[in-house]
Design goal:
Order of helices and strands: EHHHHHHEHEEHEEE
Number of helices: 8
Strand content: 5-15%
Helix content: 25-40%
Radius of gyration: 18 Å
Strand order of the largest sheet: 5-4-7-6
Number of strands: 7
Length: 247
């Protein structure tokens, strides 16, 4: 078995044509961020803060943190949310924010690079290797929310992720694991009671009371609010130090 593990740096530095620059230019707006930069000041990100205003108190503090990692700060907020309902609401908004930001980054970065990424190159090399090691299974593990790896699977391996089960379909010899979830994964509410008007804001306002059903689904686009008549909720894990659950 061959296992390949991807962290945030794999997406951040995914283009040989457009390597990271300091200071960043306007063409860097859509670059998938490193973990500590998920909430940085970018026009590209700010529209999602405006769309989900409940995340503003946390974003304000996360942009100011300098002495600790993002995961450490988020861990503190997660613990606070156990006893403070409004903090749970804010963390729900953070999940929606993360989904929006990284969905946009996935789409815009692939357009910016015309789909030419190090992911595609690497998977092409692995495909050649597998042709001479046909009994070996290849497993990709990514801790990123973006869909650059899925794009590479389609381009280099002709594997199209059309359902959650397709990520681990045994017949193709490749499996993809995303422990922290993905921008195009959702869970559904087991009960739509109390959700109305601005659907996303209503769900965010439920805090810990959001009744999540078991199971996961692929979301076709960000405008898709329901699956099988049930409202959807982003299946993205919070970036915290203590991983008590995975998506």
């Amino acid at each position: 078995m061959l296992m390949v593990i991807f962290g945030a740096g794999a997406s951040y530095d995914s283009s040989a044509t457009f390597p990271p620059r300091v200071p960043a230019g306007s063409d860097e707006e859509s670059r998938p961020p490193l973990a500590d930069d998920l909430f940085q000041q970018r026009g590209f990100f700010d529209k999602w803060v405006q769309r989900y205003p409940d995340c503003v108190p946390l974003v304000t503090r996360l942009r100011a943190h300098v002495d600790t990692t993002l995961e450490t700060e988020m861990e503190r907020y997660r613990l606070e949310a156990e006893g403070e309902p409004q903090r749970a609401v804010e963390l729900n908004a953070v999940r929606y924010y993360l989904r929006g930001v990284l969905w946009d980054c996935s789409r815009e970065w692939l357009q910016h690079t015309t789909g030419v990424t190090n992911y595609v190159s690497l998977l092409g090399e692995i495909r050649v290797w597998k042709n001479t090691h046909q009994t070996e299974e290849v497993r990709f593990v990514t801790f990123n929310y973006d869909t650059l790896l899925e794009h590479a699977c389609l381009r280099a391996l002709q594997i199209n992720m059309t359902s959650l089960s397709s990520y681990v379909a045994p017949r193709v010899g490749y499996k993809v694991f995303k422990p922290h979830g993905s921008v195009n994964w959702v869970r559904t509410l087991s009960d739509n009671t109390g959700v109305g008007g601005n659907v996303e804001q209503s769900i965010i306002a439920l805090g810990h009371r959001a009744p999540l059903a078991p199971g996961f689904h692929l979301q076709a686009d960000l405008g898709q609010l329901t699956i099988d008549g049930r409202y959807v909720f982003p299946a993205v894990a919070l970036p915290v130090n203590t991983k008590i659950s995975f998506e």
